Amino acid sequence: MASPRLRRVMLWTGVPVLALVVLVAVWSWAWFIPLVERQASAALGRPVTIGDLDVDLGRVTELVVGDLRIASPEGYPDDQPLAIVPRLAVRIDVAEFIRSRRIVIPDITVDQPMVNLIARAERDNNYTFGSGRADADGQPPADGAPSALPEIGALRVRDGRVHAQLAPLRSDMQLRVETREPEGQPASLHVTAEGRYADQPITGELVGGAVLSLRDENSPWPIRLNLANGPTEVALDGTVKDPLRFGGANIRLDFAGPDAALLTPLTGVPIPATPPYRLAGKLDYADGAIRFSDIDGKLGNTDINGTIAVVPRDPRPVVNATLKSRRVDLEDLAGFIGGAPKGKPEPAPNRGRVLPDTKVSVPRLQFADVHLTYDAGQIRGQAMPLDNMHVKLDIVDGAIAVHPLRFGVGQGRIDSQFDLSPAGEALALKGKVDFQRVDLSRLMGVTPMGEGQGAIGGSARIETRGRSLAEMLGQGDGGLTLAMAGGNLSALLVDLSGLQIGNAILSALGLPSRTRVQCFIADMALRRGTVSTRTMLIDTEDSLISGRGEIDLKAEKLDYALRTEAKHFTVGSLPTDILLRGTFSNPVVRPEVLELGARAGAAVGLGIIALPLAILPTIQLGIGEDNRCEGLVRRAK
């Protein structure tokens, strides 16, 4: 019979052993499911449920989760959870974590996952979990804290499916995702897409390299993408460093399509209508910026080269662009100022009018802060007197500063500065243009009126607001002053303006071909969209041409008259007004019929010209030191 002491020993040792045996017999990792669900739900901010849980302990421990379900946020359909995963297996290197506190995951296997991505508005979706610890520039914290991201060796996805319903992007797509590991070949990731994006059919295929050591900077991850979104085609080929952090890239990117405006939903950058285009370049990421460099492309007949860098920031990204063109056709860029590019139909509201009335969307100007420098070495066009162009443009918080917009014209140039700022649904504009010895031969050479020589100086200013270029001009205030001393104009132009019949016939035959200009002065006022003449005189060796009237920029109507008075007796001279009437799109040029029948003969000197010449001495001519206008100014005094 056992002693009392022996019985106590057996009691104290036997009960724990028996309890351990019973515990091993009935043990289940499923006991921890409620704890895991609570922790996961708290971390993701939405309900997470698990059907099964199993753990295979060891130096490398395997965690297997069955029937994982991550719900969408409250208010979304219950039958469309964010994710359903029948089986998720994760292998964790426990020994490495104990030794170095690094989370090393040799591999993850996801079987038949189904993901529903739903966006009902720009900031209303079921897939946003929070911003984490990254700063506003998208960079990791600078406090030296270790990264919480694990080091993943291999990711395997078997028969994955994604349904993306993104209302802000007008998209509904089905994606198939899987990894392939053919025998004797590197593993690869394959993603195919089909459906609609931006209300256009979309098909695409992405092939990534072996998903091994995703964070190994010494093993760049290869990627190849071919995408067709409606008529737009995108091709991408290259490698990415550290894909989980997008630590760098060396990618060749190609875009092509009939209209760059169709790229807006793909890039997130508002782009106006353009002619057919092709853009190719190098895409990389470094120092917190995504760069599209070594750009080589064409926009219609215009070549495009340079670099575009995007720095992700909150609330707006920053875009820095330095672009240039060897040759530019300004018609290709018409969409950027509200017009219709070459080969594109005019917008319906603009039919029958000349000034572009495409509305400027102020919110779209606030999509990013933009800093652009653009240079064009040669400007092409059948009726284009401009030689080259330089633009420096800044958009900050929706306010636009163009300092400067410069065009070369012969030996001179046109310098302008514009400031635009949001004013409700419209834009407020202040602008100034300086004409510095602009070559008249370039201006006259593109008109059917004839030829000319000389240099024009002057300035223009405008202050207005509106929702389009046409609306701004139609209610603007400002003025225009132009002057030219010396040079010559086609005698045909001068004589026809006064119906000097005999000389006009000789001019048409080329004799004489030109007439000298002593002085040209134009001083015009702009008041609420109407241009009125304060002074308009052309003093030639034979005639004095004057102009008067108004030009209505809002209605696009002409009500103007030109008159030539001969300085000496000319046979066949019939001084009368030449009337410019009609609209910008359909002007009518004709003589004043009543006066034509009533008048004949010659007139001499300035005495017959009834014009407000007293304003001449106050005009800033802007043509440098030249006294050839002094005589006209003295007569005005």
From TrEMBL:
Residues 129-148 are annotated as: Disordered. GO terms for cellular component: plasma membrane. It comes from the Bacteria. Pfam families: AsmA. The chain crosses the membrane at residues 9-32. Keywords: Membrane, Transmembrane, Transmembrane helix. Residues 195-534 form the AsmA domain. One of its GO terms (biological process) is regulation of protein targeting to membrane. Residues 137-148 have a biased composition (Low complexity). This is AsmA family protein. It comes from Teichococcus oryzae.
